[in-house]
Design a protein that fits this description.
Helices cover 86% and strands 0% of the residues. The chain has 71 residues and is an all-alpha fold. The chain has a domain of 38 residues.
Amino acid sequence: MFGLGTTELIIIFAIILLLFGAPRIPKIASALGKSIKEFKKSTTEDDDSASEEDSDSNNKSKKKSKAKSKA
């Protein structure tokens, strides 16, 4: 993915273990997972609301064109 091999990943994990300590690593991982989940949720909500706005604007333009054709 990023060109990191097994050795590099082990070294990075060892440094993280030294910096934060063993008891805090599960808490950090949990917080990271929750933040990623919330980010994905918010981006899908934005996509849904954008598509709803598009469909609302399409419906309004259709109503206006129908009203003009009746007149």
